[in-house]
């Protein structure tokens, strides 16, 4: 048991550090290719922070532990909507952009509802996964188109100031080192989590919804809380909601097309909580386009209650 817990902890450290190195290297390469800042942010950085979820879910599915793969995504999204947004609002009331309330949150809600419907028959087949991935491409097109319009209106992209560019060879090294750490760390994480679940008699689904989801969501939690403390509430909630859309549509889309997933331990309650968490954030966002501290406390309390019911 001690060895398996060490596997989990080592896996978390490797996955988070690897995602950071991969993102640094990829951003440096993109900047050398003169890619606009908003394109880097919406693609490379967004995908980089979701790499832990992607690697853990893909390797879990390939190993035949589908409940761990899907539980990781559902748990991460509940974690993002309830705990991350809740804690960030407790740190500082969050101002929500109109575009987020009118486009991003509804898109996240639609993605969550579609996943709930697809899971009712107990599996995510290749057709389901292809539909999810097609929706992801549509979302990316809409987002990039909107960002281009905003960029054109604002003048152009902002250049990094006082920042020495990373050497090309070093950025390539970081990309490969990051990928290696992600793959190796994910393998350790999944192996340790599966063994702990077996030893404790806890289902893979519950482990995925709690330990694995919390571990892979650490980058989003850290980013959102720091952003809220600095008064950048748009980044905080955008990071959490953007991660939710990417998790369902891109990660489950790609994973499901590679290997269909059978679900056993994921319940209707878990799927319903996924939808309810987004609905709560959406409702609170409508109140003067702000999420107040008491609303953040409600979101956090709902998350604690849900985790308590699981355990």
From TrEMBL:
Main location: membrane
Keyword line: Membrane, Transmembrane, Transmembrane helix
InterPro entries named among the record's database cross-references: K/Na/Ca-exchanger (IPR004481), NaCa_Exmemb (IPR004837), NCX_ion-bd_dom_sf (IPR044880)
Transmembrane segments: 37-62, 74-93, 105-122, 129-147, 167-189, 235-254, 266-285, 291-310
Gene Ontology molecular function: any one: calcium channel activity
Localization, UniProt: Membrane
Record GO biological process: intracellular calcium ion homeostasis
Membrane topology: Multi-pass membrane protein
Stretches assigned to the Sodium/calcium exchanger membrane region domain: 5-144, 171-309
Name of a matching Pfam family: Na_Ca_ex
Gene3D superfamilies assigned to the protein according to its UniProt record, in alphabetical order: NCX, central ion-binding region
GO CC annotations, alphabetized: plasma membrane
NCBIfam families referenced in this protein's UniProt entry, alphabetically: calcium/sodium antiporter
The name this protein goes by in its record: Calcium/sodium antiporter
Source taxonomy: Bacteria, Pseudomonadati, Bacteroidota, Bacteroidia, Bacteroidales
């Amino acid at each position: 048991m001690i060895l398996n817990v060490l596997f989990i902890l080592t896996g978390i450290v490797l996955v988070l550090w690897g995602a950071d190195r991969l993102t640094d290297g990829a951003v440096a390469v993109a900047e050398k290719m003169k890619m606009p800042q908003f394109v880097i942010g919406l693609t490379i950085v967004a995908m980089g922070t979701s790499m832990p979820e992607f690697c853990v879910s893909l390797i879990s599915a390939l190993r035949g532990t589908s409940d761990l793969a899907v539980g990781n995504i559902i748990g991460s999204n509940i974690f993002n909507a309830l705990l991350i947004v809740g804690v960030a609002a407790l740190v500082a009331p969050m101002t929500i952009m109109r575009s987020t309330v009118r486009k991003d949150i509804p898109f996240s809600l639609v993605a969550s509802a579609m996943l709930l419907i697809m899971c009712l028959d107990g599996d995510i087949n290749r057709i389901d996964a292809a539909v999810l991935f097609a929706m992801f491409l549509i979302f990316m097109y809409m987002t990039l188109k909107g960002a281009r319009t905003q960029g054109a209106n604002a003048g152009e992209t902002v250049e990094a100031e006082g920042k020495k560019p990373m050497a090309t060879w070093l950025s390539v090294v970081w990309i490969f080192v990051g990928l290696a750490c992600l793959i190796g760390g994910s393998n350790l994480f999944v192996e340790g989590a599966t063994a702990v679940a077996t030893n404790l008699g806890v289902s893979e689904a519950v482990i995925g919804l709690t330990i694995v989801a919390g571990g892979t969501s650490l980058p989003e939690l850290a980013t959102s809380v720091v952003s809220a403390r600095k008064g950048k509430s748009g980044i905080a909630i955008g990071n959490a909601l953007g991660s939710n859309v990417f998790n369902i549509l891109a990660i489950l889309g790609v994973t499901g097309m590679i290997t269909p997933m059978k679900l056993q331990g994921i319940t209707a309650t878990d799927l319903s909580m996924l939808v309810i968490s987004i609905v709560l954030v959406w409702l609170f966002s409508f109140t003067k386009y702000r999420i107040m501290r008491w609303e953040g406390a409600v979101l956090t309390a709902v998350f604690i209650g849900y985790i308590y019911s699981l355990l």
